[in-house]
Amino acid sequence: MRRTLAVLAKGAYDPAHHVAPDGAVWRASRMPEGPVTYRVSSVAHEIHVAAWGPGAEALTTEAPILLGADDDWTGFEPRVPLVARAHQRHPGLRFPCQRRVLEVLVPAIVEQRVPSVDAFASWRRLLRTHGEAAPGPTPRPMSVPLSAEQWRMLPSWAWHRAGVDPGRSRTVVRVAERAAALERLVGRSYAEITTALRSLPGVGIWTAAEVTLRLGDPDAVSVGDYNLAKDVGTAFDGTPVDDARMLEILEPWRGHRGRVVRLLYADGALRRPRRGPRITRMDHRTR
């Protein structure tokens, strides 16, 4: 349960995501009916969901899909010992289906072209400063992701203070202006969703994959990621590779390529030694 929902979190201190000491996962979200806080826990091999706020009823109705009830493993075969071992150790790992496109698209844009640690810090500043308090008895202060209107209305200085450069902030504003059309993508094929997302200025193949993965696509591969191809290459070939070679490696699992990646990350098989130059970090608040 925790690993399934972890893909929706943006760092250990995400104001919209918290894992409590008892193992329960708390999340804040925004349904069409309004803000919601929900708690997901596992008790005696059963999943329990409690929710608070105007969006509580809609969230509890959606909960099975959100937790991966519709995740289809048809056609998946481990094929090699590396994947078989990961599958055996993590048989319950599912792809969650977060059905609110803007809620996963905005943080993906914030992560573009910067180290994850910096993107997570920006997301944290934006939600803590401009997001409303999550409803319900949260175990720590939590914030609800902003609405499309709130994203559109954020002034330039707010983005600057959060460490988000003008290019990424303009992209967020543009997609927020198309929020209604984006939400209508839910239910379409992942290929259609990807095409629609990539038609938006500032949204490329990496960002689209980061979104469809969180909409439940088990074949989503984040081509263009700074570490992914190197990690996959090291696990399978013994050496870092480029995106083209990564896709060759994953081709036998087409339809489940993203699932293979998630299983291997969960199993620790894609943690290569970090050596050599690192991506350049830039604090946009000082520019």
From TrEMBL:
GO terms for biological process: base-excision repair, AP site formation; DNA alkylation repair. It comes from the Bacteria. GO terms for cellular component: cytoplasm; protein-DNA complex. SUPFAM superfamilies: DNA-glycosylase (SSF48150). The keyword DNA damage applies. The keyword Methyltransferase does not apply. Keywords: DNA damage, DNA repair. GO terms for molecular function: alkylated DNA binding; DNA-3-methyladenine glycosylase activity; DNA-7-methylguanine glycosylase activity. InterPro entries: Alkylbase_DNA_Glycosylase/TA, DNA_glycosylase. PANTHER family: DNA GLYCOSYLASE (PTHR43003:SF6), DNA-3-METHYLADENINE GLYCOSYLASE (PTHR43003). This is DNA-3-methyladenine glycosylase 2 family protein.
